[in-house]
Design a protein that fits this description.
Strand order of the largest sheet: 3-4-6-5
Mean pLDDT: 75
Distance between the termini: 166 Å
Strand content: 5-15%
């Protein structure tokens, strides 16, 4: 019994001694100055960090500041791809502090301590099996595992996790470096906002008005903080655990499969700020709607001189960049069509050519063309022209060519079938690519708000009134080619506009053309001098038939004569009467017919007076006709009564105002003109009367 008690006492003593050595070894191995581990165990820090659902700036700054306060620098992860001693292990813990969030970290940490104790110490217990058993109980592993650790066959799991994190972190940091390069130096929220403020679209108006703006800001901040932490050496798995993020989100971000909207917009904006009072305006976008070619332009155009530096930056078709070439190949017209347009409309290459092309486009936008906002930033140019006019395609192709020369590829999409009565003729349709440059034209040049169109809201381009005369003429040409008329019948050129009439009137006055403003808000060019000035500009460039009509109006006005209405048998007057009787044409159509046959232009009033005189002479006085035929009837009834008595009796019966001598002349054979017309037209036809006055035979209807 005593021997057994002695063995138990020695067993307890040896067990206590081993545990004391293990505790001492644990105290020696733990680094009390390890600020990262101490920071991770800091309750205040964990209270700020762990409940966070997003990579908010406060949590990130807290983590980084706690490390830098003690002079701790994140180490190169490539140093920990192979951990062979306790010092490297402590450094790895310092490099990956958030691994302590592992749910079995305490257990795994003890295993590593036991492993290095077995590998580095010279501990030889008399009863090795008993010592391995104690170590196995302390490390919560089997004795076989302890035995393999001692021989170096196996290694603790935590070392493998650290080495794997070191290897994968190196890969992630290379990916972060590529992302940094692709994002063009955006490292913080300030960099992001400054970059967006330098771009057109008025950051506060366009982006903050978006109902999802706060979420987009959070996405961008999370993205930037994620890159900052990975770049600083914190493993993405640790970030996913501590910040409650999904690992796929981090993986897609680092592999460039996902990029927040604001980051994608800002990363394409040039890094250097634009010149004073200018902003970056993108002219092209890629397939995902990301802008990739920028020019510097003012947010609003108030003077013509502000346009000159803008168009100096635009590329031409003779020397396009790769982006424009790609857009032309994918969407725009073919090179064969462009060569045809160059020969037809001329080469647009110099600054003056670009300005004139732009002026024509502005005029088109005030008439048939319009810019439709397709997204928050990009717009599309659209124009539909009726196939009723032979020159519609020429007009549309000219607009398309000018837009393409300014870097906005546009192409012909085909014809829309007719749909009577709303659309009696098929319509040709052209569309451009979607680009923010058109949004800048609509809002920065025409000064319209988002969603407004020129047909409903007045444009604010009074700066055009101070522009050169050639630029103003180009605007008028685009305007009159698109939405005007030239009437030979009324000898006028006109244009109608709901809301921009005042501006068009001022622009016409600038080029010395004084229009007449009608009550229907139409502007008419009617006088001979103003019509001649409009033709000499020329005010029509593509509308060939309108130009021909305007020339015809001038020629007709040069041949205007007074109508000789006093001569009844004049061939001109007889021809007017024939045209009226045979063709039933209007006065304006009669005017054109007379000009084509006689090369004489009669005014609208002169033709109306001629027709009125003809109508007046053709009126039949039925009182005269009634009296005349009553005289003939009385003569047939009373052949033996004198002419005077017959005349007196006819006057009494018909209450006529004619004199007796006039009626005596009728009886003798002087047939009145009204009676001739009435008899020839079939009125009062009576064969018995012919016996009394056979002269009426020749007036019978044929």
């Amino acid at each position: 019994m005593e021997h057994k008690q002695d063995l138990d006492h020695r067993y307890v003593h040896r067990q206590t001694t081993t545990l004391e050595k293990l505790r001492k070894l644990e105290r020696d191995c733990s680094n009390p100055t390890d600020v990262v581990l101490r920071a991770a165990d800091n309750p205040e820090f964990r209270a700020q960090l762990l409940p966070a659902r997003e990579l908010n700036s406060h949590a990130v700054e807290t983590l980084l500041s706690l490390c830098h306060q003690e002079g701790v620098r994140f180490l190169d992860p490539t140093s920990f791809t192979s951990i062979n001693n306790h010092t490297q292990y402590n450094q790895a813990l310092r490099a990956f502090p958030l691994i302590q969030s592992h749910h079995q970290f305490d257990k795994l940490h003890r295993q590593v301590k036991i492993y290095f104790l077995l590998r580095e110490s010279t501990l030889r217990h008399p009863n090795e099996t008993f010592a391995f058993g104690l170590l196995a109980d302390y490390a919560a592993v089997s004795r076989v595992t302890i035995h393999y650790w001692f021989k170096g066959t196996f290694r603790p799991r935590l070392l493998g996790l650290l080495e794997k994190r070191a290897a994968t972190l190196t890969v992630h940091q290379h990916r972060v470096a590529k992302l940094r390069k692709a994002e063009n130096g955006i490292r913080s929220l300030d960099d992001l906002t400054n970059r967006l403020h330098s771009r057109y679209f008025r950051f506060s108006d366009k982006l903050q008005a978006n109902p999802n703006f706060s979420q987009e800001i959070n996405d961008a901040v999370n993205h930037l903080n994620l890159l900052n932490l990975v770049e600083a050496g914190i493993h993405p798995s640790d970030l996913a655990t501590h910040f409650n993020l999904h690992k796929d989100t981090i993986r897609q971000t680092l592999r460039q499969q996902f990029q927040p909207h604001l980051i994608r917009l800002a990363s394409n904006i040039p890094k250097h700020p634009p010149n004073h009072k200018l902003q970056w305006v993108p002219t092209l976008t890629n397939g995902n709607g990301v802008p990739n070619r920028f020019i510097q332009a003012p947010c609003k155009i108030y003077k013509y001189e502000q346009l000159l530096p803008v168009f100096n930056q635009l590329v031409t078709l003779t020397n396009p960049d790769s982006n424009l070439t790609r857009q032309l190949n994918e969407f725009g017209p073919s090179s064969i069509i462009i060569k045809k347009w160059i020969s037809q409309f001329g080469l647009v290459e110099t600054l003056e050519d670009k300005i004139h092309a732009f002026g024509y486009i502005i005029g088109t936008l005030l008439s048939d063309g319009h810019i439709a906002l397709e997204s928050t930033y990009s717009s599309q140019f659209k124009i539909e022209l009726s196939s009723k006019y032979s020159w519609s395609k020429t007009f549309g192709n000219r607009v398309v060519y000018y837009l393409t020369c300014l870097g906005v590829p546009t192409k012909f999409l085909g014809a829309i079938p007719a749909k009577p009565p709303e659309r009696p003729h098929p319509c040709y349709i052209w569309h451009s690519v979607k680009t923010p440059f058109l949004t800048w034209i609509n809002e920065g040049v025409l000064n319209l708000e988002q969603g407004q169109i020129h047909s409903d809201y007045p444009v604010k381009i009074n700066w055009v009134l101070d522009a050169p005369r050639s630029f103003q003429i180009k605007i008028l040409q685009g305007l009159f080619d698109g939405d005007s008329w030239a009437s030979v019948i009324n000898s006028e050129i006109g244009i109608a506009s709901k809301v921009n009439t005042d501006f068009i009137e001022q622009l016409l006055l600038q080029v010395e053309i004084k229009p007449n403003k009608c009550e229907s808000n139409q502007l008419l060019i009617k006088t001979k001098n103003t019509l001649r000035q409009a033709v000499e500009l020329p005010i029509f460039l593509s509308a060939t038939n309108r130009f021909e009509c305007a020339n015809k109006i001038i020629h007709m006005l040069d041949r205007t004569r007074l109508s000789p209405t006093a001569i009844d048998n004049l061939p001109l007057i007889r021809r007017i009467h024939e045209i009226r009787q045979d063709m039933h044409l209007s006065i304006g159509q009669i005017r054109i017919k007379i000009y084509e046959e006689f090369r004489i232009t009669l005014s609208y009033g002169a033709i109306k007076r001629i027709l009125d005189n003809i109508d007046e002479r053709q009126k039949i006085d039925y009182d005269t006709v009634q009296t005349f035929f009553r005289v003939l009837e009385l003569k047939q009834q009373f052949p033996n009564i004198s002419h005077r008595q017959l005349a007196r009796r006819a006057i009494e019966e018909t209450n006529s105002t004619k004199s007796i001598e006039t009626l005596r002349g009728w009886i003798r054979g002087n047939i009145p003109r009204d009676a001739k017309r009435a008899f020839s037209e079939g009125y009062f036809f009576n064969k018995e009367i012919l016996r009394v006055n056979p002269y009426l035979y020749k007036y019978l209807p044929k």
